[in-house]
């Protein structure tokens, strides 16, 4: 790494620190020529090929803006969306691929969005899985009913508990 001050072609790492999310490493470097210090950030490269063929770096903000539309009017907060984007980044990075299709990102969103909000999930899935008819919605809804997300299970359990309490009530 060239020194950004004097362009000396070498530098010495004096400190390395992993970011809180574990996705990047910040290195403090010193130039052996001019003695000045600078920082570099190292991340594993992860790029996305858009449908247009344009290649761009993976961006959590893009994930958030893509999902936000599906969440309109739903009880989903900005921090829910930020967490979802982080989960999506972790799952796409865990595939070990350095380059993904935009569609792969969309598919990686689905299981996490489903945990977050089933209506938003259905809206998003209808776009990414290219639903063509009401039958596709019926299938997706049937699948949601057969395999509820953990959030829904909690709601169902609470409902059962209420029912049980009513049963024993006076
Ligand atoms: Zn220098």
Structure description:
The chain is of the alpha+beta class. The protein contains 6 helices and 6 strands. Strand 1 and strand 2 form a beta hairpin. Helix 1 (60-70) crosses helix 2 (78-93), helix 2 (78-93) crosses helix 3 and helix 3 (102-116) packs antiparallel against helix 4. It is elongated, with a radius of gyration of 23 Å. Mean pLDDT is 85; it is low at 152-156. Zinc ion binds at residues 3, 5-6, 8, 31, 33-34, 36. A zinc finger (unnamed) spans 3-34. Its cofactor is Zn(2+). One of its GO terms (molecular function) is ATP binding. This is Transcriptional repressor NrdR. Negatively regulates transcription of bacterial ribonucleotide reductase nrd genes and operons by binding to NrdR-boxes.
What's a concise summary of this model?
The chain is an alpha+beta fold and 170 residues long.
Bound molecules: zinc ion
Low-confidence stretches: 152-156
Q: What's the alpha carbon Rg, rounded to whole Å? A: 23 Å
Order of the strands making up the biggest sheet: 1-2-3
Main structural class: alpha+beta
What's the number of extended β-strand segments?
Answer: 6
Mean pLDDT: 85
Largest sheet, in brief, is: 3 strands, antiparallel
Inertia-based shape = elongated
Portion of residues in beta strands equals 15-25%
**DSSP helical segment count:** 6
What is the helical fraction, as a range of percent?
A: 40-55%
What string, H for helix and E for strand, traces the elements in order?
EEEEEHHEHHHH
**Amino- and carboxy-terminal Cα gap:** 76 Å
Family: Belongs to the NrdR family.
Pfam families: ATP-cone, Zn_ribbon_NrdR
Keywords: ATP-binding, DNA-binding, Metal-binding, Nucleotide-binding, Repressor, Transcription, Transcription regulation, Zinc, Zinc-finger
Zinc finger (unnamed): 3-34
